[in-house]
Design brief:
Layout lengths: L2 E5 L4 E6 L4 H9 L8 E4 L5 H13 L2 E5 L2 E5 L7 E2 L1 H4 L9 H8 L1 E5 L12 H9 L3 E5 L2 E5 L8 E3 L5 H11 L5 E5 L5 H12 L3 E3 L5 E5 L7 E4 L4 H14 L1 E6 L7 H10 L2 E5 L2 E6 L9 E2 L11 H8 L5 E5 L9 H7 L3 E5 L2 E5 L8 E3 L3 H13 L3 E5 L2 H4 L5 H6 L4 E5 L2
Parallel strand pairs: 2-15, 3-14, 6-7, 10-11, 18-19, 22-23
Antiparallel strand pairs: 1-23, 1-24, 3-5, 4-5, 7-9, 8-9, 11-13, 12-13, 15-17, 16-17, 19-21, 20-21
The protein binds uridine-diphosphate-N-acetylglucosamine.
Length: about 425
Amino acid sequence: MDSIRIKGGNRLSGVVPISGAKNSALKLMVATILTDEPLILSRMPDLADTRFLSNLLSHLGTDVERSGSVVSLQTANIERAEAPYDLVRKMRASFNVLGPLLARNGKARVSLPGGCAIGARPVDLHLKALELLGAQIELTDGYVEARADKGLIGSKINFPFVSVGATEHALLAAVLATGETVLENAAREPEIVDLANCLIAMGARIEGAGTSTIHIEGIDRLLGADYAVVPDRIETGTYALAVATAGGEVLLKDAIWEHNEVLWDRLHMAGAQVTDQAEGVLVTADQERLIATDIETRPYPGFPTDEQAQFMAAMTVAEGRSVIRETIFENRFMHAPELMRMGARIDLKGNEAVVTGVGQLRGAQVMATDLRASVSLVIAGLVAAGETMIGRVYHLDRGFENLEAKLAACGADIERVKS
Ligand code: UD1
């Protein structure tokens, strides 16, 4: 298993090109199931997760080809409307093939998902939405067996709480349903807007994506399209926090300012400068230490749970005490004990972490536990005295394209150690 070695202490300066958003790319790829025509996706990140999903789509009958950052997908026929455990367990987003398979094929059998170890992550909202669209669903031997003999039928779906995955899943199914579907209390993340825009480019009729009420007028057939994935706001936030913590000045090229407004606000409060520029977002940090700042994770446009671990890493060396509250997932503080091995002072109480900034972290041997947690250890390693070795970096490879190269190009002393 590969590790990452970092020698801390270097400031960062230069340009980091922001890749296409992993969380968006995965849902856009799934949209290929809805049409027999080619779907050409550009600005596609090359990640372990996009490769897993390519394998699953190939298994279903999709022809997948990558050339640089362009991926062409064509599902001329659904050859197998079944997603086996081995292909779904590695990544929860693969569960989203269920709705489109059902919409195009009238039946599907998909394993219940695995994914990051961040608490119980049920799919009850996904299944409820599909049932409201007229699917008959049975759970047998860890599989969801779903049928819609007469096709899916438009419906009103009022989500009891905000779920990104369930909103996307309902969208992906309802575009080919008969009649109108209304999604209420829908998620408003930029990835939802990206998926809706791609589906619209394929001919779908969708209004209101990005607000909490989405209207979909079902149509019989979707067409092919050419579509560019939105830049990754989580990768943007991660590098912004790396620069704010390590110090320096970096342009996050192609980053979209509006997608991280709460983070920019918190970074200003903490003493870093962030500005919206024509080419992206510029982060400048020339302060001695950041000032401790509180956050609470919330659905978009609130503070993203996927940036919580990175923010915590920044706060471990800030001046003062910061309170970090996680309200989206249970068990999403697995990075805290690892940060404490590097000298951080963190008290955990339920969904709250109180971080008391220390003057200096020390390099240590630490273990990545999930995707976002692992990158928080990279941020800590960049400011720690001495050497940090991060094990199990396959978690990082799921979601960060060329991480070591992007940081090394800005002056970080970081390398991958193959084993
Ligand atoms: C997506 C993102 C993930 C991000 C999360 C929240 C992808 C591939 N992943 O995950 O990186 O952290 O949004 O921004 O896009 N829940 C249920 N029942 C359901 C569905 C969700 O109880 O049927 C719960 C979850 O356990 C969680 C909360 O709802 O506590 C929000 O989850 P959700 O928004 O669905 O996250 P994902 O779509 O899985």
